[in-house]
Design goal:
This protein is an all-alpha fold and 231 residues long. Helices cover 65% and strands 0% of the residues. It is built from 9 helices and no strands.
Length: 231
């Protein structure tokens, strides 16, 4: 019955994302001050589990990601440069498109990695950064761009060449992608930027690299300036 709901090729791209969301939902249901590991709250402690389980799912399904396994070595210098540049541009837009009307809800610093003495907790920062810059780009690009975007045009999405993606698929998948972020306008722009990289190059690694650059630079900017509401 499961295969009739989603094509078999969809599950390896859906399940890591679903696992990530499930732990996120569990974190959100916990009291903010519930005790976790050491001085970390339980919600902060669960982020490592959240990212770790998603990474494990990605590793287990790695042989199924044909759009990634065969293409990393095919990245040209121009593709690398375009991916990095796009990631930087998205980061600049992300931190500036934060007017109240561009945001869903009020800005809240839900993650402040400091110890009881008020010093930065570098282990917690490292865990958060690794999850955001390594796990999330792979997980989300496989889900949003490889699966969701191409599925708008065809149920047999694996057979759909990225270059044949319609404008409707790009926009619709980017809008839904944005709903998972506080900054909805920045999220739409980021989704379209990553989608266009995939469509233009035909290589999902370009979207992954760009997404990773954005998230890594955002982490550095947040920690350097204490802009915790962006994390």
């Amino acid at each position: 019955m499961a295969s009739s709901f989603l094509p078999a090729a969809a599950w390896p791209r859906v399940l890591p994302f679903a696992v990530f969301l499930a732990v996120l939902a569990a974190r959100g249901a916990l009291p903010e001050d519930a005790a976790g590991l050491g001085h970390w709250t339980l919600a902060e402690s669960l982020y490592a589990l959240q990212a770790g389980l998603a990474a494990l799912a990605l590793a287990l399904y790695w042989p199924r990601y044909t759009e990634l396994r065969s293409q990393f070595g095919r990245l040209s210098v121009s593709a690398w440069l375009a991916s990095i540049a796009t990631g930087v541009i998205v980061l600049v837009l992300w931190v500036n498109l934060d007017a109240p009307w561009m945001r869903i809800g009020e800005p809240v610093a839900g993650f402040v990695p400091v110890d009881p003495a008020g010093r930065l907790d570098w282990l917690q920062i490292a865990v958060r950064t690794a999850g955001a810059a390594l796990v999330v780009p792979l997980m989300e690009e496989l889900f949003w761009r490889s699966f969701v975007m191409r599925s708008v045009d065809s149920r047999e999405f694996e057979q759909r060449a990225p270059a044949s993606t319609t404008a409707l698929a790009i926009v619709l998948s980017s809008v839904v992608f944005a709903l998972g972020h506080d900054l909805w306008l920045a999220g739409i722009i980021a989704g379209i930027a990553y989608a266009l990289l995939y469509v233009r190059t035909g290589n999902l690694w370009c979207a992954v690299i760009s997404h990773a650059v954005t998230n890594f630079l955002l982490a550095a900017w947040v920690v350097h300036g204490g802009h915790w509401q962006f994390w």
